[in-house]
Design a protein that fits this description.
heterodimer, A: alpha+beta, Nuclear Transport Factor 2, Chain: A, B: mainly alpha, Rna Polymerase Sigma Factor, Chain: A, 78% helix
Chain lengths: 204, 180
């Protein structure tokens, strides 16, 4: 019988080399695609958009109206504190290991219902606090205080970044990621890029 | 690691040299991964080709905070999975095709030709795809169980189970071949 370790070593030693033909063909195509993407890139060299807007009275007025609309949307979101309630319930369910509650608050289309057992890897004694919450009318992103996750392999520490989505007027958790202090800002940046109308929800 | 971070940054800035370096650094690794997952030379080559072309096109919007190696491995895995779904390939058939093509049609392909490794390739192809993917990503791509769980959208325990079952099955397949 082959010991498992030998099989693991064998798999690690698998190696396949690309033929010169494949290497050259792919490299040519890759460089060509790279060049094309550079040529067709959107007008990055356009002058500052803000200056353009301020150039004429009409665009200035349109910009003001847009700002008013944005504030109105923000106000509308502030009316619905349910995203805050949802995330707080979810955090309580994580801390309390309340599997049924976690499943209830999770988006059934997401992987979370199948991953609830992973929350057991949170080191006991973790206190989960909500640090920030941003939302537009459909998506929300919550960041928690640091938690410690322990599994067979290692021990990781960092905040949880939780994504929520609104379906049929109900906020549901659709993704939970363990991040590091360094990567949280990337997540926030990405969220704001995808949801420019998102506003900060006050944490009561 | 630091080299990869620099490469990512230079690639995002539009550096052609960085793209070439990434390609040269990871081409064989990705090809090995695709081969282990699909056991089909042509399909593996196509996937590696497509992954790099898409990658090259993405330079403008490229934002990656994780490891470049894992990112490329994930791209290959996703495409391999699509390929499997699309063609509903049977491992046994694939294996025959691969071994035939390795032996004759593609003399320029260089595989580690040890008999043991060929047996291993053969055996891996007989595993259910999910188990194969876990084993290859864990051992060849060096990914953590947690990362694989996220990729396959199942729990870490399920992934660990697939890994164990896969290795056991692999062992019994190889033992069977030895006894023959």
């Amino acid at each position: 019988m082959r010991p498992e370790e030998n099989i693991e070593k064998l798999i690690k030693s698998l190696h396949f080399e690309a033929s010169t033909k494949l290497h050259n063909r792919t490299l040519n195509d890759v460089l060509e695609a790279h060049e094309k993407s550079k040529k067709t890139k959107p007008a990055e060299v356009q002058p500052n958009i803000w200056r353009k807007i301020m150039e004429t009275k009409v665009t200035r007025k349109v910009a003001v109206l847009c700002c008013i609309a944005l504030v109105s949307v923000a106000g509308a979101i502030m009316v619905g504190p349910s995203v805050y309630d949802t995330i707080q319930s979810f955090l309580s369910a994580i801390v309390g290991q309340d599997v049924s509650k976690l499943v209830e608050l999770a988006d059934p289309k997401s992987a979370i219902p199948r991953q609830v057992d992973d929350f057991k890897q949170l080191e006991s004694g973790n206190e989960l606090k909500l640090v920030s919450l941003h939302a537009d009318d459909e998506w929300a992103l919550a960041v928690t205080s640091d938690v410690v996750v322990v599994d067979d392999e290692d021990r990781e520490q960092g905040p949880l970044v939780i994504t929520l989505v609104k379906r049929d007027d109900l906020w549901l958790v659709t993704d939970v990621d363990l991040e590091t202090e360094a990567t949280v800002n990337d997540e926030l940046d990405r969220f704001f890029n995808n949801h420019p109308n998102a506003v900060e929800i006050s944490l009561r | 690691m630091i080299e990869d971070e620099l490469l990512k940054w230079r690639f995002k800035c539009g550096s052609r040299d960085a793209l070439c370096r990434i390609y040269e650094k990871y081409e064989d690794y990705l090809l090995t991964l695709a081969m282990a997952l699909l056991n089909d030379v042509n399909a593996a080559e196509d996937i590696v080709h497509d992954v790099f072309v898409s990658f090259a096109k993405s330079a403008e919007n490229f934002r990656l905070r994780g490891s470049l190696k894992s990112y490329l491995a994930t791209c290959v895995t996703n495409r391999a999975r699509d390929e499997i779904r699309r063609n509903r390939r049977r491992p046994a058939e694939l294996n025959e095709v691969t071994l035939a093509s390795l032996g004759s049609e593609r003399p320029d392909q260089q595989v580690s030709h040890g008999e043991e490794l060929q047996q291993l390739n053969n055996a891996i192809a007989q595993l259910p795809y999910e188990q194969r993917e876990v084993i290859i990503l864990r051992l060849k791509a060096g990914m953590k169980f947690r990362e694989i769980a996220k990729l396959q959208r199942v729990s870490v325990n399920t992934i660990q189970g697939r890994y164990r079952y896969g290795l056991n099955k692999l062992r019994s397949i190889l033992d069977g071949e030895v006894q023959k």
